[in-house]
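Minimal example, chain plus calcium ion.
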Amino acid sequence: VVIPRLWIFALAGTLAAQAPVADPDRDGDGLSDFHEIHKHLTDPGKKDSDGDGVPDGDWNERREWAYTVRTVVFVMRPADVAAMNDDYQDARFLEETADWVKAEVVHYPFGTAAQAIVANPKWRAESAAMRSWLESTTTSNWDEKTRAGLLAKLGDVAALDDKAFVEKAAPAALNHAKVVDGFTTFYTSFEGKRPFVMPELRAKFDEESRKAGRKMEDVWAHELFAKGMFENATRGTCTSSAIYLCGCLRALGVPTRIVLCIPCVDSNDAAELEMVRKNVKHAAVRRTMLAALEKSKGWSSHTFNEVWVGGRWRRLNYERLGQPILDENYLGLMTHVATLRDWADGKAASTIGKRHAKGDWKEPFTTANPYSVSTIEDRFGAHCKVPNPSGPPRELTIDAVMWSDEAKLAGQAGRGGLALLGRVRGWKEWDPFKMFTQDADGRFYLEAEGQPSLGMETGTGGVTMTDGSIWILLPLGPADLDALRPGVAYTLRPRNDKPPLRWSVADGLKVVRK
Ligand SMILES: [Ca+2]
Ligand SMILES: [Ca+2]
């Protein structure tokens, strides 16, 4: 193997290199410039971007310029609230026990951190200074033989910047190792660097080992230790692959770590799925989330990597540098819950592994997944410019009315009573209409001078006419029907007690019962 000259030079220069500088925050509002530009979309030069007296760093104020999804999550350790704060999320601690943490997480699905990856051509010195992220550790272990073997696959890479280097090295390392089935990474514990299996996890471990037809030590050499995986040219499912890639990239001088993500709700729990359907108003986000959640029943999480590129930790999902937080193929909307220097540091066998081996689902987690979500809701910040073309409108206007017993509607509406129908101006999409009616105040009054006020309440019902127009049903109760005076011109007035959603009525619209 011929190691390029520049490479040797870079390694020799490591002692003089400086550790990377902290994220600058030039307006001093507690949010870094990078996060203001790529996550919160606030002004990095102004402490109070909208001038309302509340600084941008405030927990709620930082959501004013972006579209965000907020969850309250219970998740088993190694989840860690500090790690949950990254380029795509903010999180704050609510509660904890020995086994789990409860946190409030705000996701920024349209953050642009993934598109903001810059390359550093002089990366080798800076990266070399980040020794703790390059070292051979318990499972992401490597030695000179690993390094030499990888370099032989890469050819001449001395001139590549860090971005190009990772984009070449990650697929090369992954292609070298064939994927084998097996999932012992969650059932293995460590004493120092030595792996072992707790007695209560042994049956589960053996069950997984049998899939590969290997004995314990051999299984570990094929899916738990990066060096073994490189030598055997195999790797297991995602966690194993993340351990492997972490070891390989470190051997090549790229600071690398492991991240654990979960979907934003537990897809095994019907009530949590229903919250997504009901509370996530952004139509495209909701669709992406539900599509991913429908596909992933059972135990669902994803382990992958972060690499130091262009002076920042960037998500690397297998060969994809800049994995976004919103992705139908990876959990829908992901929640980052843990960052590990080495998989062994997470002690996942004593929490998640043990629970899964025992199979007793107790509160706060009631399904196979070691997490559960009690709240999920999205918000378009007051200054947010994210469009929601197929999402629910904030306001719908009724611009024409007719009675349900009018000839052309016979059989379609008004069964069991008389209803007024109001045409919804300019709106032809049924699902967003339905979402709007679920949340908006459905109470209306018919009012006329000298007459008692009549009340009506919409359900979520409506009808679509042949021209595509949608009409909302406003049923009248028997008493109100008796009080309705034929020939009187009533005004239709919505109550609108559930802002920000509101109904309006076209100017001059009158309701007359003939
Ligand atoms: Ca700032
Ligand atoms: Ca403000």
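The chain has 14 helices and 23 strands. The two ends are 95 Å apart (CA to CA).
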